[in-house]
Amino acid sequence: MGFLDKSINELINREYPCSCGRTHIANIENIAIGVNALQRLPEFIKNQLLPGGRVFDPKQDQILVVSDVNTHQAGGKKVFEMLQQEGFQVREFVFPYPSMHAEEQYAEELKAALFEGLSLIVTVGSGSLNDITRFVAFHAQIPYYIVATAPSMDGYASNVSPLIHNNLKITYSCACANAIIGDVALLATAPTKMIGAGLGDIIGKYIAINDWKMSHMLYGEYYCGEVADLVLYSVQKCVDNVPGLIRREPEALQYLMESLVLIGIAMSYIGVSRPASSSEHHIAHFLEMKSIFKGEYGELHGTNVGMATCLIHDMYRKFLEMDWNFDKAREHAKQFDYQKWEQEIRHSFGLAADEVISLYQKVGQNEPEQVLKRIDAIEEKQDQLRVMLEQVVKDTDTTAGLLRQLNGLTSPEGYGFDKGEIRDILRFAKDLRNRYAALQLFYDMGVLDELADHIVEAYL
């Protein structure tokens, strides 16, 4: 099939029978990334198919331009005025908040702003606005476009929306944006920290692909090597262009934006975020939840992912230095105390604890019988696993240095959490998702607490 030989627009809106046995598709109709990409917006709209099969009619169909107080100034106002000048019937909705997470309360605000005759939503922004709009547009069955204001995260082409629900980040299946526009002139105005966040989200894919492949090798989880190769190609393309990102060169910004979109396409191909999200994302989500609990905005998602990638890198490296004692791991598994675990979850997750406990009751990831079976698989394939982990440690050796060049964070120091909180984040982040990854591997081998202590002492 050869994903790597195709342009980004050849990878969308068509079916690809794959060597993995599945047929992949990303239902995105148009992507424009590069110089003057925004100029293609009117063309896309005029050819947009609406539910029912008819083409967008400027005489009867209306557009809602969505932004917030920051992205309105960065590009929302320009998009609104452009569409007015092109003769479209357009209204705008501006979230009045200087900072906001993707929370259901904001989705409800946007939902309330929808109106009769609305046929298309054009959102100008990045992570939170994109996730909120995708969720609302999907449930309203209205096409939506995203005009990116920062190359800060990999969700532009995703078909899922992670939203805060009942104080827990829940990933909802939705639909892809109908069009994605990344104009490098607009992307170049993004703060350096947001560009660094995009790099952080990208670099975390080394861990995500490793853990996906690891779960496939150990337990037979579905895995697509061609999608994994597409993700790793995107990561390397981005890493190779960090010097250009520092100088805000148009070509480097285009590469970063394309890489972020390609990873979103990979997620759409699989139907879930598995090719792009693993333990580094579980830690990032927990950090974001902790900030929300404190009434703070916290760091950008990609910033958290980049920092967490540094931590998982160090934990994997330390794990490789350890004696893998399978008898000790089995004894540890047998000693699991559900009541103690639930108490610790309620202490760590607070208002979100019920959702985590509910997931455990469905999955039972720490139940001794399940863990013992996994330990058997780890012991049987320990040589292959060791080679795999040595490679991912090598791949992420330069992560911290690259992130620092773009104002990224590489340590939990400065987050405002004490040693106990960071330790608990590392111990319990795995319980946020039913997904086998590094932190669950460490738990299964009976060394998660020891590795969490190692990180706390090394960084704080």
From TrEMBL:
Task: Give UniProt keywords alphabetically.
Answer: Cytoplasm, Lipid biosynthesis, Lipid metabolism, Metal-binding, NAD, NADP, Oxidoreductase, Phospholipid biosynthesis, Phospholipid metabolism
Identify a single GO molecular function assigned to this protein.
oxidoreductase activity, acting on CH-OH group of donors
**Transmembrane listed as a keyword:** no
* Keyword set includes NADP: yes
Q: Which GO terms describe its biological process?
A: phospholipid biosynthetic process
Q: How is this protein named in the record?
A: sn-glycerol-1-phosphate dehydrogenase
